[in-house]
What we know:
The chain has 631 residues and is an alpha+beta fold.
Amino acid sequence: MVMPAPIKATVSMTAPSPDPRVGLSPGLWDAGQAAWNMQLVSLTPPGPKVLGATHSDLAFSGKYVIQGNYNGFEIYDVTNPMKPVLANSYLCPASQNDVSVYKHLVFMSSESGSSRTDCGFGGVPEPVSKERVRGIRIFDITDVKSPKLVTSVQTCRGSHTHTVVASPNDKDNVYIYISGTSGVRSAEELPGCTDSGRGFNDAVTAQFRLEVIKVPLKDPSKAAIVSSPRIFNDLPAAPVNAERNAAGARAGGAGRGGAAGGAAAGAAGAGAAGAGAAGAGAAGAGAAGAGAGGAAGAGTTSAAGAPAGGRRGGGGPVGPATGPNQCHDITVYPEVGLAGGACAGLGLLLDIRDPAHPVRLDAVGDMNMSFWHSATFSNDGKKVLFSDEWGGGSAPRCRPTDKMEWGADALFTIENGKMVFHTYYKMPAPQTDFENCVAHNGSLIPIPGREVMVQSWYQGGVSIFDWTDVAHPKEIAFFDRGPNDGTRLLDGGTWSAYWYNGYIYSSEIKRGLDVLEVLPSGLITQNELDAAKTVHFEYLNVQGQQKMVWPPSFALARAYVDQLERSKGVTPARIEAFRTALATAEKQSGGARKATLSAFATQLNSEAALAADGAKVKVLASAVSDLANAK
C-alpha cells in the first residue's frame, strides 16, 4: 500500500474557493485529499484477516475503538491516536455487524441469512436451520485479546442495526432496541415468528413491532426479548417525490440496504412503505406531520405499513401501502427521556422513560426525505436532526444535478412533544458519478454553547457543520479524498465519523480507520476546542446519546468570551475587559482567585441586561461562578 502523507489543511474563517473537494484525483490508497479546518492524524489499514471486507460502525470504551466489519470486528488501542494499535481482529461474519459497547460487553448486529452460530465462514445453505443467527450477539471483552461469545438473542427479522439503552432508572440492566429490516423468518426456524402478509398488521405478525431485549448485567447470558411494542400502528404512507425518484432511477443501482433508485425503499428489502402510494406530499418543501397516536400496546387489525419488497416466506396477499413497519435506526437520549426513530419513510419521536415500553409521541414525513436513516439530538434535547440515506448508501447522490434537499439532513425543533421542521443541511461540494455519497452517521462535537456536528458522507468525505441556528446550518470544516476509482463506481468512503475524547474517528469502508483532529480557526477557537476536550466519555455509543457536561475551567469561560466576540454580543472593549479579568484570576490561587472570580461573575450578571447577547453573558457568568466555587 502506497499512502501519501496527509496534506496540510487550509485554516480560515471562510470556505476555500474554488472548493478543493471538486476534482480530487482517484485512488484507493493514493487518492487526492482536501482539508479545511481539520486534519488527518493517522490512517490505519485493516488487519490482514479483514482486508477487503466492508467496515461498518464504531463504538468506544476507555482507550479502545471497536470497529465492526462484515467479517467480525476489530479492537484498536488508541492511547496514541497518531499510531492506533490493533489489539484484536475477531472473526464472526455477518452483516452489518454494527457494534455497541457497555462496560465489558460488546453487542453486534446480525441480519444476514448466512450468519452462523459458530461464527464460522461458509454460510448456512439450508433454508431452515438452527445454525443460523439473525439478531444480536453478545461478547465479553474483559480480555480484549480473547473475546468470548456469551450468547446470541435471535429475532424474527434479524438486526440491521441496534441501540443500547442505559436507563438512569435501572442500573442492573441495559436494554437493546432491535431494528430488523429483513423478511420474517420461518416459525420452523424460530418459533413465534409470523408474517401475516405485506401491509397487514394484526396481533401476531412479526412486522410493525420493535423488539426490546433486556440484558442483565450480572448475567448477560440471560439476555432475552422482554417486549415487542407496536409503535408503528396507524402510520400514513410516506410522502412521494416523483422528481427525486426519477433522478434516482436514472442513476440506477440498489443501495446497501436494498433501497433501489430514488424511491423510499427499505433496508434489506423491508423499509419505507408507500414509495409508490399516492401519499400526500409535505407542504411545500417542508416536513408534514404524520400523526401522533400509536402508543405502545397490542396490535390492531388496521394496516400500518407495507415493506417495500417485503419478503414473505410463502407469498400471500398484499395489504394497503401505508406507513413503515420497522425503523432503520433509533437514537436514544435517556437523560431527556426521548428517542428519535429514523424509520425509512417517516421520522418518529418516542418517549423512552420506561425503556422496555417506548411510546410514540409524534411522526413526521417529508417529500424530500427518501430514507430516514438516523437521528441526532441537540445536547439540550430541544432539537433533532434526521439524516436521509437516499439511494441506500451505494449510489452517487451528491452530483451537481441532485438538489441540496435530497439525501440531506432535516432539522427540527421539538415543541410540546411535536417535531417542527426548519430546514435541510447537505455537504455542499458536488461529487462525481463514481462516488457513492449521501448523508450518513455522525455525532455532536462538545463545543460549549453550540450545536456542532461531524458527519460522514461516504465518498463525500467528512463534514463538520454548526446547526446552533436550526434554520441556518453552516459548514465549518471538512476532509475528503478523491473517488476510489476514476473509471467506475466502487463502494467506499466513510461509514461513520464520531468525536471521542478529543479526536474524530472515521470508519473507512475499505481503507480502515481514520483519525482526524479539528484545528482552531475563527469558526472554532482554541478555547472552544480546549473546553470540548474537557468532556470525557468512559464509553460511547453514538446511538445512545449522553448529555455533555463541561467541568469548570478557564477554557470554558474563555470559550464563551470568544463566542460573544464572534456574535458581537458585547463591545470589543468589554471583550478585552473580560479576558483581562480571567487572565488576572488564573494567575491567582486560593481565596484570592475565588474572590476575583466571584466579583467578576457578579459584574457579568449586572451587565447582562444591557448586552446585545444578554443570554450568553449570563451563561458566561454562570461558568465564572462555577469556576470560583470549583474544588
